[in-house]
Amino acid sequence: MKVLAPATIANFGPGFDVFGLCLDEPRDVIKIRESNEIEVKVEGFNVPEDPEKNVASISALALLKMLKAEMGFKMKVKKGIRPKSGLGSSGASALGGALAMATLLEVKNKELIIKAALEGEKAASGSAHGDNIVPSLFGGFTILKSLSPLEVFKLDVNFELVIVLPEVEVSTKRAREVLPKYVPLSDAVRNLALASALISALKEGDIEKVGKLLDDYLAIPYRKPLISWFDNVRRAALESGAYGVSLSGSGPAMFALGEDLRSIGEAMVEAFGNEGIRAEYFITKVGGGAKCLDV
Ligand SMILES: Nc1ncnc2c1ncn2[C@@H]1O[C@H](COP(=O)(O)OP(=O)(O)OP(=O)(O)O)[C@@H](O)[C@H]1O
Ligand SMILES: N[C@@H](CCO)C(=O)O
């Protein structure tokens, strides 16, 4: 049994903890089979092999516990999404681990799978936010209305975007610690207006309009001390023709929409370089969600 669990962009501008976009790549690949022992092996980016510490096995174990089932397993995690990247690295592994175990046990209940995956996400980032796990499972653009009961609205969208990944790390845990408990009402209203308009623009398929609706007043302003380069890289993207640009999840990855994605990516990489930070860019499209393969 093998699960492909894709990277995601959480928040997607104004949708803090609610919006999520599934990417076609990169992805984690989680292989699982029943065994007498519990073992985790990791390939690719470095994450723990201790089953109590790897997000994928934590989620698989959480599902077993929820079902009051006992079973050993051997898990192989091919880690294709860089941890602490802002691309939903822990979310993809958490979803992959829960989905792989669910498939082994022939469990189809999506709410249960997400509940188990949230245990992994919580272990990684200190918070059971679902805006990476949900798009990684369902694909497309997701609006997470409620986790319990699970209520997800999905938009099937189709466009390309450029992702820029700098060689710095931002811990999601830290990026959540810096957020205030309360925000000014005027900022909440601004985000509400942007988020509502963004959904309408996505439904129209007007990506230029979507790009102009990516501002955020709830999280990014408070995270600036952790992402001091953000404004300069954003400016470079806009000056090179991007319709819009934002942080992916809690960063450091950024994404931009536009026509000439290659030029925008190059301009953003150069802007990171001016800050003394090496970065790379890649172009991808909206992904279709996690896949289970019988191998
Ligand atoms: N399978 C796994 N995948 C990713 N991270 C893991 C995994 N197992 C354990 N971890 C640990 O979880 C932590 C992930 O931290 P964090 O949530 O900040 O990153 P992230 O999920 O990659 O961020 P983001 O969601 O913004 O991409 C790291 O300390 C990492 O070592
Ligand atoms: N919504 C989460 C996503 C983290 O990947 C946050 O911004 O903290």
TrEMBL record:
Q: What EC identifiers does the entry list?
A: 2.7.1.39
Q: What is this protein called?
A: Homoserine kinase
One of the record's GO cellular component terms = cytoplasm
Q: Name one GO molecular function term.
A: ATP binding
According to its UniProt record, in which pathway does this protein act? Amino-acid biosynthesis; L-threonine biosynthesis; L-threonine from L-aspartate: step 4/5
Biological source species: Thermococcus paralvinellae
GO biological process annotation, one example: threonine biosynthetic process
Give all residue intervals belonging to the GHMP kinase C-terminal domain.
Answer: 198-267
Q: Which SUPFAM superfamilies match?
A: GHMP Kinase, C-terminal domain, Ribosomal protein S5 domain 2-like
Kindly give the InterPro entries that the UniProt entry links to this protein: GHMP_kinase_C_dom, GHMP_kinase_C_sf, GHMP_kinase_N_dom, Homoserine_kinase, Ribosomal_Su5_D2-typ_SF, Ribsml_uS5_D2-typ_fold_subgr
**Can you tell me which family this protein belongs to?**
Belongs to the GHMP kinase family. Homoserine kinase subfamily.
Check the record and name the Gene3D superfamilies matching this protein: 3.30.230.10, GHMP kinase, C-terminal domain (3.30.70.890)
- Which UniProt keywords are present, listed alphabetically? Amino-acid biosynthesis, ATP-binding, Cytoplasm, Kinase, Nucleotide-binding, Threonine biosynthesis, Transferase
Highest taxon of source:
Archaea
